[in-house]
């Protein structure tokens, strides 16, 4: 039974005004204050958290607040299908056209040459299979970086004109030649640095950031570019991207003399990100507690519960929160118990995680479900439905999907969504139809996150040695097979298929990522066979259960009809 003595103390929060709220907030980080606030410590299985007693309240129950990270009551949570970019039904029988089969055979032959060390021969077969209309540059074909203006006569002219224009405070004379210089001769590293300097001089930090991102993506092993990008991100107070930039350089260049320096900077920026997150949580919680107090005055005492619990949950950290949520989902979902398939997914995931630029407690799980689905929890807990293995045609395509989801964790998207929801969600309790307004606002933000995950995921995919167009090809093929999937664009949490194909393809071309690298067709097909077997077994069990239930119902009906 609920403790109704909680109501007077809740009403005191409202009647006491801002002073009481301030006192409550200033001390509730501590366990003693949490206990005084009426929360109790609940332990269930391997999870534990502070929980507000739920009073019995007449009338219809409030709609539960479902989140990615709140584990105080995850027993009723559903897997966040809306986070996946491709959700779609699949079939156990995947009949391929003769053309598609021939393409896969060529890719498989290319894989054989690739693994044998014949990279040029493999690339020729990969090109033939993908029927490229024009050669696409690969990172290996880029010229070596240079710092000398005497690299060529053209470089010397563009460099002179740009630097003189900047000295003379002539914007066009500075920016135009430097822009052309970086486009035509991206290997000239000072060009990227000087162009960013010019954009910053004319108060265009976003343009400066874009210029440095292009250079850093094309030459990830040049510390001067990575350092400039990192400093630009830090100047703009984008602490998490700065930490990721530093970690990526350290991860991709472990033998570089400055690798340890970049690793240390990553920790510094990560701490700044955490401090900023804590400040945001504090600010959001103050507003939510005030709103909760107003809710109490209006007869809704449950409004004050969420802010306190949410803040405590958020401060536990992504790894801890993600681990608790993952355990809950493992209990609720039908997990695939095939060791070989689980090892396959884990191997791909850890290979991608190694070049993700962020150190999280990465874990990868396979759900025995034929839907093409995947979702990420905070802290690097990635769930892949077995249908994703069936619908993808190569390890590179599947790795593209996993890299996309992994990028959500790397970029702390789950935590960001949860923080923003805590800031706006409680306010909607006071505004009619506020839920729709809040959903639209968050949905718009989510589409931006999806693009970030697409681009970072593609970068991770290429850096891990897979064909860089794995995610692009999967998206392109699914769009061609089932174009009606697009649905309502405005309320979708993902960019329109044609848009995402376009910007992913442009990103690959602009940064010179290699489309003609390892595909992994044969090992993927072996795992597909195991998944089909597991799904058939699951179907047989479900059919047997249905027959059993029908027999029991028929027996009950017969018994009732007997005189």
Automatic annotation (TrEMBL):
Q: Name one GO molecular function term.
A: metal ion binding
Query: Pfam families, per this entry?
Result: Peptidase_M48
CDD domains (UniProt xref): M48C_bepA_like
What name goes with this protein?
M48 family metallopeptidase
Report the record's Gene Ontology biological process terms: proteolysis
Q: Where does the record locate the signal sequence feature?
A: none
Q: Which organism is it from?
A: Lyngbya confervoides BDU141951
Q: SUPFAM superfamilies from the entry?
A: TPR-like (SSF48452)
């Amino acid at each position: 039974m609920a403790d109704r003595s909680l109501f007077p103390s809740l009403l005191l929060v409202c009647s006491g005004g801002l002073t009481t709220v301030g006192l409550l907030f200033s001390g509730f980080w501590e366990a003693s204050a949490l206990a005084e606030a009426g929360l109790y410590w609940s332990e269930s299985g391997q999870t534990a958290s502070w929980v507000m007693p739920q009073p019995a309240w007449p009338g219809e129950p409030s709609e539960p607040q479902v989140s990615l990270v709140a584990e105080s009551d995850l027993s009723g949570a559903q897997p966040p299908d809306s986070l996946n970019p491709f959700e779609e039904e699949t079939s156990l029988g995947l009949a391929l056209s003769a053309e598609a089969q021939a393409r896969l055979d060529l890719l498989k032959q290319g894989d054989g040459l690739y693994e044998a060390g014949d990279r040029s021969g493999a690339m020729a077969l990969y090109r033939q299979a993908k029927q490229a209309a024009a050669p696409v540059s690969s990172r290996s074909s880029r010229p070596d970086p240079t710092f000398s203006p005497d690299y060529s006569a053209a470089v010397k002219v563009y460099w002179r004109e740009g630097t003189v224009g900047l000295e003379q405070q002539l914007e066009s004379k500075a920016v135009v030649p430097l822009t052309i210089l970086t486009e035509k001769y991206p290997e000239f590293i000072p060009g990227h640095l000087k162009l960013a300097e010019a954009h910053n001089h004319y108060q265009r930090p976003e343009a400066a950031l874009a210029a440095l991102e292009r250079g850093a993506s094309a030459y990830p092993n040049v510390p001067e570019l990575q350092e400039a990008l990192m400093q630009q991100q830090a100047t703009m107070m984008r602490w998490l991207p700065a930490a990721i930039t530093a970690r990526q350089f350290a991860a991709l260049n472990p033998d570089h003399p400055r690798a340890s320096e970049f690793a240390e900077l990553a920790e510094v920026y990560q701490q700044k990100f955490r401090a900023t997150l804590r400040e945001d949580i504090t600010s959001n919680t103050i507003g939510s507690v005030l709103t909760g107090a107003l809710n109490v005055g209006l007869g809704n005492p449950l409004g004050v519960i969420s802010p306190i619990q949410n803040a405590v949950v958020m401060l536990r950290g992504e790894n801890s929160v993600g681990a608790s949520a993952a355990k809950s989902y493992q209990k609720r979902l039908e997990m695939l118990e095939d060791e070989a398939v689980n090892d396959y997914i884990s191997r791909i995931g850890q290979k991608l995680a190694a070049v993700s630029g962020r150190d999280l407690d990465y874990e990868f799980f396979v759900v025995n479900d034929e839907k093409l689905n995947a979702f990420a929890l905070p802290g690097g807990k990635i769930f892949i439905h077995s249908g994703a293995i069936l619908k993808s045609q190569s390890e590179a395509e599947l790795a593209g999907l996993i890299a996309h989801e992994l990028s959500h964790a790397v970029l702390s998207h789950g935590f960001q969504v949860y923080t923003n929801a805590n800031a706006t969600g409680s306010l909607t309790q006071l505004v009619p139809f506020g839920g729709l307004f809040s959903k639209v606002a968050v949905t718009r933000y989510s589409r931006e996150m999806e693009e970030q995950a697409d681009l970072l995921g593609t970068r991770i995919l290429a850096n891990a040695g897979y064909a860089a167009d794995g995610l692009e090809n999967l998206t392109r093929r699914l769009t061609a097979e089932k174009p009606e999937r697009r649905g309502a664009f405005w309320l979708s949490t993902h960019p329109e298929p044609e848009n995402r194909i376009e910007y992913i393809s442009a990103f690959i071309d602009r940064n010179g990522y290699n489309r003609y690298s390892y595909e992994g067709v044969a090992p993927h097909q072996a795992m597909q066979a195991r998944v089909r077997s597991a799904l058939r077994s699951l179907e047989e069990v479900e059919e047997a259960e249905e027959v059993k239930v029908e027999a029991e119902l028929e027996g009950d009906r017969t018994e009732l009809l007997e005189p």
